[in-house]
Amino acid sequence: MLYGSGHRVEKVISHPNYDSKTKNNDVALMKLQTPLTFNDRVKPVCLPNPGMMLEAQQPCWISGWGATYEKGKTSDVLNAAMVHLIEHSLCNSKYVYNNLITQAMICAGYLQGNIDSCQGDSGGPLVTLKNEVWWLIGDTSWGSGCAKANRPGVYGNMTVFTDWIYRQMRANS
Fold first, then answer.
1. Is there a domain that residue 23 lies in?
2. Global pTM value
3. Could you list the residue range(s) of the whole structural domain that residue 58 is in?
4. Cα separation values, 147 from 47, 69, 109, 113, 117, Å
5. Does residue 24 form part of some domain?
6. For the chain, how many structural domains are there in total?
7. Tens-digit pLDDT profile for the chain (173 aa)?
8. Which of 28, 131, 133, 135 is the most core-located residue (most Cβ within 10 A)?
9. What's 115's domain CATH number?
């Protein structure tokens, strides 16, 4: 498989407990055939420690080539936006996602809508800057439409998956 600017993917490793109905454990890894070369446009991001504390309203950034509006076409340029983490209990309230959010998920965005990930952004990063370090805290998973009020983006919670990721890295090195 060939992705992006010519990086060949040797193997895709999906989480064995992924549930396509609930989107629980929505995370996968790609092993590249050759290592990436870091430069001004390609930089590493740190994996969080298991259970790393995330705070409601913490600023985060999303990026992707997905649609810029619901049912739109994917973008030719990489887009990015700032969103805020939303408290788990608020995201799980009956006014938002009504108990669909598991511990393996986090919500980010704005309850008033307007800014969100959209179709084509799935798998993309949710990162935050903490103590001058960029952390990958989520991967774009699902939502209800794009940028709708009371329907923020839902992301895989990387603090839950860190141990699984490291085990896969060791097993597939």
1. no
2. 0.93
3. 45-160
4. 27, 8, 8, 4, 7
5. no
6. 1
7. 445 567 899 999 999 999 999 999 999 999 999 999 999 888 999 999 988 889 999 999 999 999 999 999 999 999 999 999 999 999 999 999 999 999 999 999 999 999 999 999 999 999 999 999 999 999 999 999 999 999 999 999 999 999 999 999 999 98
8. 135
9. 2.40.10.10
